[in-house]
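Aim 2, interim progress. The first record below pairs a target sequence with its structure tokens.
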Amino acid sequence: MIQIFVMAYIHNGNNEKTSAKKKFLQNQSTLNDDEIDLNRQSTNVTLLHKKDTLLHGIKLILVIFGLCCSVFLVSLDNSVVSTALPRIVSDFNGLNQFALVVISYIITEISFQPMYGKLSDIFGPKVTFLFAVVVFLLGSFLCGIAPNMISLIIYRAVAGIGGGGILSLVIIIISEIVSIKDQGKFQGLVALCYTISSIAGPLVGGALTDYVSWRWCFLINLPTGAIAMIIIIFLLHLPKPTGSLFDKFKRIDIIGTIIMMPSTVCILLSLNWGGSVYAWNSPVIIVLLCVGILGYIIFGLVENYIVIEPIVPPNLFKNLNVVSCFILNFFMGAAFFSYIFYIPFYFQVVKADSATQSGLDFFPYLLTVSIFVTLSGQLFSRTDKISFRSVFIFASLMAIIGSGLITMWNENTEYIELIVCMIINGVGIGLPLQSVILCVQCLTEHKDIASATTLSFCFRNIGTVFGISISGTAFNNKLIQLLNTLNLPSYFSTQSVYTIQSLPSDTRTLVIDAYILAFRIIFELIMLFTVLLFITSMFVGNVKPKHK
């Protein structure tokens, strides 16, 4: 998932290079599949790594370790919280705010994410990276001492400000300290780090929740983050951008940021509140949607015509293949993270799992995703004969099959059946999860790689919020509708899943059946996302990885 293949193609012979460049310039307005190779040959002729920034030996190993620690803590945070959330919302009696804990983090993550690429250019990747880690750790500490649900939601938003930059900045730093030919090797290490943290997250989260306290699901980030910061401070030395501090601040796209952030918040709040807090046709939802959409339109115009150094380069959206990858990433985020946050919840309600056991039950899915994320990176680093589109199409078909099977889950489904369904879906999600980022990087010029990478993560996170919001709204509406038809005792509360087990046997069966039907709505929506994933894959050009 966290990879970057940034390579320069140096031609032999001036005539061949000149001819290729002329042909590219004549056809750039109608870029198609056959012309992608010309784009790569004519635009990537600048050496991307200066010798004085490359690291070697033990120093390189330690810096990579520090960067992997930061990747570990961010990806661990996401999967740990998903397992702990049922206990958290039960302790705070806030099941109706279940999705807000996730969405508050992602709202700020998305809003600040596009800025980090430009901030890296202005202040340098090292300083920007350290800033992101400090903010993330501050938010994690505050979450660990949160006294109520509202505080937790606010503090998760603080953590999201930092979390939005860590992953993309790791990519940028690695591209500076590692030679082109070694990119695949070190990206594999980062992918392995993500694999380990994804697998460990539900287990760690479940164990901490059951045997210590869910608060340590947040506080555990502090020592790992401290290690990463110490290593980067003392061992990573990159050239500092020129100019005074005042000049650097002047380069920040303040106008674009001011427009984009509230627009994003309006869109995401409308998605989360619609159908749950307010009716979809209520004035509040309509106003939020209109303000958000209008804000994005104004943001696009400002970035294209007014701002000198936009945080979102408009030229990226003039390439159909790049746009297709962005949209593909959107639906992938919607599908993948909806599973991550709702399947452990399903196991705790329907199978009466503890937090630890739900993490163990979910283990096959995350393991499969992690394995195929790593395999896809190795595949594209070893061969340039296979196109990204062919992998995307195959993967999306697997995701559709797996999602369709998951919609048939019920209280009598055997665990081996659950495993098979999760493995099939995990293959479909895992293969493109990382390689779609690589595809975007192969399609963009070197000067736009940082922005394109952060935008790719941004689209994935927007899809995540969209998927979780829509799924959560549909789930809550269906569950309330079904439970209202039952004669439930006064002590039963939908705000805590643990009261289900205290119900009489017959009533408990009816309540669990209601939850199963509500979960099925979520799984059907996810299947729709995978179908849209397949359709979008068809529009990605015949792009192949760069190896020269």
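The second target in this work package is listed in the same format:
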Amino acid sequence: MFANQLSSTCLREFAPTNSPLFAFRVESSGSPMHDWVRHLSVNDLFRRELEENSVLGGKVVVRVVPGDEQPALERVKILSLSYATRIFGNVEDAKEFVRCVKAIADPQAAQFELEQIASHYYRECRQEGPVPEVLKEMALLGMEMARVTASVNDLEIETFETEMSEIELTPADKKRVRQAQRNLPPLPERTPNFDAEMRAVEKRLSRSSVTKFKQDEFAAFYLSDEGKSLEELDDDFRRFDAHEQYDEDGLLGLRMSGASHTEVVLEFDAEVTAEYLPEDVQSLAKLLQLAFVGYEIGGRAARVARHFIACRKIETRDNIRAREAFRINAPFIETQKPTLTEFSVFPLTRAEISEWIDFNLDALYSREAVRLVRRVSVGKKGEWLEYAVNQMVNPDFDEKQYASQILHILLAQMERDFHLTSLRRNEVYQSTYLQIRRAKDTAVLKQTGEIARRAKDEKRLSLKEYTALSTVAKSQFARLASNRPSPALYRLEKEIVAADSRKIGYLKWAMYGSNQPAHPVHDLPKQEVQKAWASLKQRDEILKQKAASDFERTRQQQLQFNRAEAAQQVKVTPANY
């Protein structure tokens, strides 16, 4: 199920008003130009996006960007020469490594393929043996792969070219050609009446394939040069060209040159969130995510979901058995339902999630209504018989189907999300992630980092999962560093700010190591201890600067006093004649 297949009526009722699904969804009434004008008038806030972007396949919105796209090799950071030099320690091995990876990979290899090849051989260089041996194996494999991926022309070693001489006709052949030209059959006679009639018919039918009015007001508006600068006129021509690309399917066309490439602006499926669900169903989105993950984070939700599925299946079977027992007038005993603890905390499978969604929506949209239905059948003599019957229907069926489609789109988003998929697939990844997020001390974060590193070495975590956990740990470090100070740290900082030099010396001794274990600083987490030491050093520096300035001021005053006393003394020196 894709977002572009959702019901327009349900989208208008439940989706957010600023949803981009409305902007790029032109309703067709059979007149493309009329639909386009009406769509622009309704979505005037998205006018620029509609003119500059294009919809491809009904799933993604792209735009044309000038300039060639960056090659895949240049987008792979681990294949850059600077990164390889940092790994190998010298430029020669780094250049050879990059050259061998290019030889092994396909000439049209994508970015992720180059990343996988480079990551594999980096690991080989670290674990298997000396770097020259690995590079030698890579070079040999590259030569073998070059024979497979190269074209036949690239593999040719020696070629011979032969020139074909021009063949001229003989005089007899030239004579026959001239006679054939003179003996051509005559042209058919002119039919002016028929030709005039065909021109009239073509003139009437020619407007049927035009997607705009013959008198184009848009062209007159955009292409007029009255009161416009050169840049404005160029911009208007570009917008008019975007209008001209509108086609019969309600999409904007796509025109590109050799010096441009496309960029994905948005994906319709990625724009769908829990806000698109009806208000009564929005709580299922959070439960769906928990049941998808399982284990410690969503284990209880997965267990409750399995218990709910089992109970609904038992109720369905009991209803069938009860109707059968009532029909044959037999006793009926209800099946005992299982307890919650009988089910596991593992993530739900795709089939279990689909059943859980269906059962929940059946419970939410269980309303039924009786409607009168007209039916027609054929009698014994072939006559048509019309009669009316009562039929039970669900009046909320469209809303129920819409909610099911949104939930399945959200499920597909979870399956594409690397973090949620890793939480679902690897219990070690989930437990380590929870330890990182629950850590209130940076010392605990460092210990958790060591645990994750050992799990990676033991192959219980992949390199990609370990990198993701390292990123989470860095964000947790920043989060703890930006937290508000605790009351104990606040009191300690006030004490440091009001301390003199003697008190600062005492605090340095008390806060260092285990000199005074009873001091409150030893009960603080590591990040707050670092803040306390930073405040202590800052206060010590301020006191030292103040003492130095006081000493300098006293010294200047003493020098001025001594200079004044020297000016009051008069020394008389007798002259010798």
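Residues 26 and 164 are 59 Å apart (CA to CA). This observation will shape the mutagenesis plan for the next reporting period.
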